Fold:
Amino acid sequence: MAAPNDYNTVYTTLKRVKEQLNALGQKSCPVFFDMGLLCKALEVVWAYPVEFEGVYPLEGGMHLFMAVFASVGNLYGTAGLADLLSDSGVYAKATVGQILAGKDFDRGMRAFLLVDEVLQKRFFIQFQQWLEKHHPDILVEMDGAFQQFCTSFANITADHSETEALSLIDSKIVPLIAQFRSLGCETSPLYKFWDDYLQHVSVPLKLFIASSRHAIWEANLFSKYQLLPILFASNRHTYSRYMTYLVLQMQRIPSDLLESFQNGHFVAKLTNGTFNSVWIDYVLEVTENKVLKSSGGIIGLTHQDTALARGFCPGLLQQSIHCHS
Structure:
């Protein structure tokens, strides 16, 4: 049996996808790979464009997140991020090493959110102290507007108080935040370092996660644009090269596939609700861990089509097929 990353295996997989595509009468189908297989799948499709017309190999969001976090570990790990995670007592040093190497998705996700929360909280504490010293009148205006905003938001009502609060943020708070950031960067190299982390790492990653959870295609694609510099800066050659192509390719996909993605069909949803869509490679990762690697694996399921489909295809979209080593 050939290895999963063998070109013959990848070719056969794409061939089967194309056969199913023709059988279902569909014009196009995305196929989600991790990057180790995706680069070879793309090379196969490039070599045989007519044979695999309509087959679009794409990256898995979970593996992209892990690659970005490995890039973050490369850029910021020894500059204080590793110490922040370990010296705080949240993670042991060995675990921090695994997280910053992009090898532990769940802990990596939690670590990213914790670091972002801590830095954002410290930022706004310092910003408030700066306002008290230089713009005390704004604090009084902010307090009243935000109290009204929170009340209207809690009651799920859209009235003038919400508009007033948003107008205050756009007209006064945002310019003051920009001024505070500029002064901080000029005063302290350490402030500039962590401000760079917040602006160029936290914001794109949070947008990438939120757009995936909400299944918002345009925001998700834009977040990938923003993540490309991190991949290039950390010398992630494979991801930086192929992700550049994939991001540009998404500008030329056929209308039926674009419409499907715009309807949220680039991620999977296991249950009804909001903010609970997940990357398709994450679905298979969970399935693999619970089914393939559990006692017995698929033994006994292969003769029961419904049980096999339930175990291996929960929440998968009709037009999405995932191949993972």
Summary: The longest strand covers residues 29-33. The chain has two domains: 7-60+279-322, 64-249. Confidence is low (pLDDT under 50) at residues 313-325.
